[in-house]
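Long-time lurker, first post. I've been practising inverse folding by hand and with some scripts of my own, and I keep getting stuck on stretches where the structure tokens seem ambiguous. Below is the full token string for one chain I'm working on. Before anyone asks, I'm not after the true native sequence, just a reasonable design that respects the backbone. If someone could post their per-position residues I'd love to compare against what I wrote down in my notebook.
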């Protein structure tokens, strides 16, 4: 059959393209394009906290800032809840605000998000979708997105990196429109879209983007107008709150119309068209699948194959789900006999995911409509969606169309039945308390000093004690976590119950159905580990009191934290300390968020390079000093606080024995051990022990204890004539070599002076028990 071309239209299209702003072709991921759009817009501020898979957005922006490619103020918060507060405050102050998050981080900040939409302050946030734990899974599904359906934010969807770039630009226009004034979310699939690279066109000149979004709108209420002081977020009673909610609801529906206007304008400068619904071969479709984001692209290929067989198949994929495009869906589905909707998240107990019921309700409003809706939960936890899966989805729709009903209206797709023979089996025989008792460690209270006297044998005498963690873990070569933890555990006698917060130590020791832990292990997220273990502790003592548990010796309860856990988890840790539960919090300090790719944490020292404190012409690593968690915890008046490293084994063993005694007899203990991270410190694998030893001898990481409020330095490099300059320690790591260059002399001096100040203050405390 001959193909006819509309030469007049082609000429018009060609002329239109010639008048469009210049665009360049690149090959980038969704995260990179989100950062590109933000940099070109040049937001005032981004408050952020690292969580996989959205972390890269902040990383890319930090790297771009070091090169002078934008002026965005990047604020590393202490957790997602804090980042949402930072963003809300900045938006209330009248500026343009940006953020990116995922999964449990989104849930942690969700309390703040209705506050922002309810008080009508615009911003743009990228939700890089990921499975909600527990159990922990970092791959992409839509379980986090579904929690955001009721927070009052318009939600745009981006199925590929091109759409991520375009939607981020359009989102700001929608958010700031006078008829909307709401924060807007751009959601795209974690790892499928966030990390996979595709061809993308972007505007060569950032002024094109800035002209499109326009200047910050004026004339609206904000917190920084001295001529017009305002009250933001006042307490409301009925009927004020229902009126406020009505206005917000109307603004949400207007956002759908505004998106259409903005998308039409964007098409004129980009040549790319974004309807509210992405419809593929739906003009006369009788069966269709309804899918969000990246999975829809796979289904389109199958639709083509079915069309070639004479089956009228189509694909519906929304570019916007808040507001819900009811009218557009009704129009698209008017000829359908059956539609199969696949959802990457369940509404447990609801006989279908959230969008299943919205789709059913929308179709029910069509008089006489008999479209059959089939629903399946698929792709949970990032399970891939292949060509064969799309064929199965269409087959379900075709079966329903042929029968006139759906034999199984709702089910899961892609799950596998359990096999008792494949159930995880113990590889090692359980080890009980006696196996971990050496009988060589003796701790006795000294009535005269009020402190503990500890006798420990040489380390070689304790080598017979089994390790608490089996060797089958997946840590990087040279990781300091395991020598540090195992050395500490050598000083602990008997049974333990250990809780690991999310972090490298947790991730590399547990991968279902396997575990490297020889005794009871619990996991909870950064922000709630201390509270969780305190609940375990108190339940143990209460059940023991009631006679429900009989044990010869009490457990020692240990929470292991690290990878920035004492940023996001500091609040609950302080609460646990104030309640003085009988447990140990042990922080392994690797100076960053290493499990998410080496972002700066508050434990990262000044000037050190991370993936969110890059080194370049505009900045030289982290710009502020590190947090002293040991001193913070000592200020809560818990009975025992200590620092240690594997480089001084006898010192750490002695402190571990003390920690156990206090945790079993008095109350909470906090310990901080410095451990090496060769991958992100950019050091040789075998140099970890030497580096942490140098950190001690430079007085950056002093060894001391605070026992019942009295500070004692347990190793004094000055007295032992082992003191080295901070500069000599920094030379040992690639992440800090830049500090030894002349252009960073001022920063190096500031860092060294702070190390001296903290060391001298510690010595004063050592010399005066009342400090």
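-- Answer (accepted) --
I ran through it position by position. Result:
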């Amino acid at each position: 059959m001959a193909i006819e071309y509309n030469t007049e239209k082609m000429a018009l299209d060609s002329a239109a393209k010639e008048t469009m702003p210049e665009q360049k072709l690149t090959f980038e991921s969704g995260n990179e394009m989100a950062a590109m759009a933000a940099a070109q817009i040049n937001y005032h501020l981004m408050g952020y906290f690292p969580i996989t898979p959205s972390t890269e957005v902040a990383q890319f922006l930090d790297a771009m800032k070091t090169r002078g490619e934008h002026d965005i103020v990047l604020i590393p918060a202490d957790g997602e809840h804090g980042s949402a507060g930072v963003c809300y405050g900045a938006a209330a102050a009248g500026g343009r605000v940006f953020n990116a998050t995922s999964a449990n981080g989104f849930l942690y900040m969700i309390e703040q998000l209705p506050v922002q939409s309810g008080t009508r302050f615009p911003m743009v946030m990228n939700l890089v979708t990921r499975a909600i734990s527990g159990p922990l899974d970092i791959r992409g599904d839509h379980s986090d997105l579904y929690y955001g359906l009721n927070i009052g934010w318009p939600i745009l969807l981006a199925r590929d990196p091109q759409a991520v770039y375009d939607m981020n630009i359009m989102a700001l226009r929608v958010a700031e429109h006078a008829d909307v004034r709401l924060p807007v979310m751009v959601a795209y699939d974690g790892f499928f879209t966030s990390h996979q690279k595709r061809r993308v066109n972007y505007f060569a000149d950032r002024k094109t983007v800035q002209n499109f979004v326009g200047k910050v709108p004026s004339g609206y209420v904000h917190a920084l107008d001295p001529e017009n002081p305002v009250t933001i977020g006042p307490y409301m009673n009925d009927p004020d709150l229902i009126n406020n909610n009505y206005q917000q609801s109307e603004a949400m529906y207007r956002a759908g119309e505004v998106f259409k206007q903005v998308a039409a304008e964007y098409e004129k400068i980009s040549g790319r068209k974004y309807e509210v619904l992405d419809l593929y071969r739906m003009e006369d479709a009788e069966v269709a699948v309804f899918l969000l984001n990246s999975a829809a692209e796979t289904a389109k290929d199958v639709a083509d194959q079915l069309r070639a067989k004479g089956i009228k198949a189509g694909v519906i994929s929304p570019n916007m789900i808040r507001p819900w495009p009811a009218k557009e869906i009704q129009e698209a589905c008017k000829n359908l006999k059956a539609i199969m909707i696949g959802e990457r998240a369940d509404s447990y107990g609801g006989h279908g995911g959230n969008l299943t019921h919205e789709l059913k309700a929308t179709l029910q409003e069509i008089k006489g409509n008999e479209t059959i809706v089939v629903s399946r939960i698929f792709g949970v936890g990032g399970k891939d969606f292949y060509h064969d899966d799309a064929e199965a989805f269409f087959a379900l729709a075709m079966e329903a169309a042929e029968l006139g009903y759906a034999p199984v209206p709702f089910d899961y797709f892609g799950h596998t039945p359990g096999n008792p023979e494949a159930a995880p089996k113990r590889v090692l025989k359980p080890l009980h308390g006696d196996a971990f008792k050496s009988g060589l460690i003796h701790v006795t209270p000294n009535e005269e000093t009020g402190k503990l006297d500890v006798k420990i044998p040489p380390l070689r005498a304790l080598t017979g004690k089994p390790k608490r963690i089996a060797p089958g873990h997946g840590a990087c070569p040279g990781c300091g976590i395991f020598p540090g933890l195992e050395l500490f555990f050598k000083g602990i006698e008997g049974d333990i119950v250990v809780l690991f917060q999310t972090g490298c130590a947790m991730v590399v020791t547990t991968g279902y159905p396997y575990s490297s832990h020889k005794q009871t292990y619990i996991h909870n997220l950064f922000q709630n580990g201390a509270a969780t273990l305190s609940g375990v502790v108190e339940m143990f003592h209460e059940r023991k009191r009631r006679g429900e548990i009989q044990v010869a010796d009490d457990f020692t309860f240990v929470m292991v934290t690290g990878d920035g856990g004492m940023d996001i988890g500091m609040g609950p840790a302080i609460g646990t300390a104030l309640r003085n539960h009988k447990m140990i919090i042990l922080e392994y300090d690797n100076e960053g968020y290493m499990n998410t790719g080496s972002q700066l944490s508050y434990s990262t020292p000044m000037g050190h390079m991370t993936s969110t404190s890059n080194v370049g012409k505009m900045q030289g690593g982290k710009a502020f000093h590190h947090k002293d968690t040991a001193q913070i915890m000592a200020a809560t008046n818990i009975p025992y606080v200590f620092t240690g490293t594997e480089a001084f084994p006898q010192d750490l063993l002695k402190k571990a024995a003390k920690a156990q005694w206090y945790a079993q007899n008095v109350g909470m203990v906090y310990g901080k051990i410095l451990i090496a991270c060769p991958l992100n410190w950019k050091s040789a694998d075998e140099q970890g022990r030497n580096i942490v030893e140098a950190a001690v001898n430079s007085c950056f990481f002093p060894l001391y204890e605070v026992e019942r409020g009295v500070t004692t330095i347990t190793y004094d490099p000055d007295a032992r004539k082992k003191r080295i300059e901070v500069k000599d320690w920094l030379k040992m790591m690639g992440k800090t070599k830049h500090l030894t260059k002349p252009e960073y002399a001022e920063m190096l001096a500031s860092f060294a002076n702070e190390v001296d100040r903290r060391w001298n203050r510690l010595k004063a405390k050592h010399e005066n028990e009342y400090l």
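A couple of notes from the structure itself: The longest helix spans residues 240-270. Confidence is low (pLDDT under 50) at residues 1-12. Happy to go over any region you disagree with.
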